[in-house]
Structures
1.
Amino acid sequence: MKDFLEEKMTKISKIILILGILIGIVGIVLVYLKNKQKPLDYEYNMKTSSIDKNSGKVLDVSPSISSKYLGTLQFKTKPNSKNMAQALLCVEQYKNVEKVDLYMPDMGHGSQPPTVNQASLPSNLQSQASEGIGFGCLSLENMQLFMSGLWQVRLFYKDGTVGLFDFQILE
């Protein structure tokens, strides 16, 4: 009888050990998946230009000119002309941004400015941030992209630099 109980306890111990290992593996996989940053389909990089002080117009940007500041714009969902858009805007020298607006360069008009608030830096961009460049994020909400075509989110810096994010609204 004693051998029978020891044999049963050994089997139960093995089963508990196996279950514990499986639970540990599942836990590790879940933590990995939670921390893994998925790439965004609606992410755009910034190019920079300057503004003509007399006319107030943004000067043309040559594709061969590198940006003065780094920046990325990440929409939370695919932007369209039917719904208000929301985005996370992470840029260098974000504290020196005076104004953010929405503009259609092909049409010569824009839309009401988005609601802008400071936001925390996501983990996938923390490696790019350092104290010296003043990298930070702004939350853009209530973006009215009311018609299809080429749109720009424009950032106006205190030094006269303009950051531009170009994207298409198809519907």
Note: Helices lie at 2-35.
2.
Amino acid sequence: MAKAVRVRVSPTAPFNMFDVDQYVKQSIEYTENMNIEQYLPVLLFILVGISVGVMPQVIGYILGPNRPDPAKNSPYECGFEAFGDARMKFDVRYYLIAILFILFDLETALLFPWAVTLKDLGLYGFLVGLEIVTILTIGFVYMWIKGALDWE
């Protein structure tokens, strides 16, 4: 039979969430004991990534020539003067084909690592990859039957 344990709660409990001074003290102790060196590679990766994206633009803005004239500032459309509205509507099929291309392109790109490690994956890995290829084939045939790939 289990014994009941009596717990006494007092105002001098080890941690009172309404005691701000104690909370601040514990936070300072935690940050002093924290090892920040393990986050240095992540911080360095983020800084290098941001600088690779931003620095070429800043350098180009500073060093690049800026000699605007009316010909450079005018809209250019294949050698013709601009005509019509630039915000013309595209057919929905264009977006559908683009989305389907991206979907199947990414799925096909994921098949390459699977094929490289197929020997290590064994029969189970082969069957899982075969399942993925079957699902992709069924989706492709379904799109073909529904006419999603017909441009007309």
Note: The first helix runs from residue 20 to 33.
3.
Amino acid sequence: MARGMQHQEITGPGHEMANDTIRRTKDISDTSSWYVLMRITRTIPTAGILSLLVVVLVIGALASPAEPWFLGDTITLSGYSPESSTVYLFLTGPNLPSNGVALDDISARADQGGLTKVSVDDKDRWVYRWDTHALGGRLDPGTYTVWVTSEPVDRSHVSNANYRTIPITLAQPGIVIKVPDQPGTLLLRSTPNGTSVVLDGEYYGQTPLTLESLKPGTYNVTFSRFGYTQQTLPVTVEAGMRTEIDVILIPATGSLSIATSPGGGRIMLDGADAGISPVTLTNIPAGNHTLTAAKEGYAPAAQAVRVIAGQNVTVDVVLEPAVPAHATQRAGGLIPSIIPAVFVSLLFMVVCRPRSGR
């Protein structure tokens, strides 16, 4: 790999590097001859290997992994140091001495000689595999800094040596187990029975209704029946649970505005007194009803009316004058009195008719 270049490789789990690699290369000044290579490898059973390779010049900015590593991972650090045969590593971070500790034994303080020494090979390259499981102590989850120096110094004396820092975030490992959701059951009842049920826009039947094997979640359930106000409500189905819903439907109502000609007629609706016209009747159940209007001196009038839910229906009733009772009786008695008179007249005419031949 040519010095004076910045190179980064990221290989996804479960893939060979040659098959799934993102490469970024950037020219950097080659005025410095000392730089650090960090290669971090996480090994997870059955999940493949994720590798991150970074090469940076001393005067360049050091890239670090975007994702956190877990306590117990093995992180491989490597780099180049042509000016020394040994590099020295120490660690700073949460609840550690400010001047650092050795990577392989966090109980060894860097300001007391606790440094991790790594040899540089004949190609000026060094490699260190940091086992975060064997540290001689316990690290807390958090973000740490690995210091790489060309001289055996601690943090307070890094100005006396060439150095580079590598930020690394360590997280607490955990296990996430995903269990498939168990279906739930929904029992729907209503008053009155026989109400149509629509679940998230799909018709399922009439109440009482039991729906099984429903995926857990929230559904919009609509109850509807002719003559009643439609109701829609959200219902939550829980995994492995039975949810029961009871709904009382409210009758749909409308109103009637009733007038009679002439006015002042007594109004009856379905046999019940409803007042004197003109009158407006409200909260009447939707559907067919019988309306009767009566007024003294007029014949009662009855007719069927239909109440429409949410609407006002206007009804006009024309009353006809009633026939007097004595006039009916007089007309009825006249015919019997006329019949005998007619009979006598016809008989007289027959008797008195002139006979021919005399």
Note: Confidence is low (pLDDT under 50) at residues 1-66.
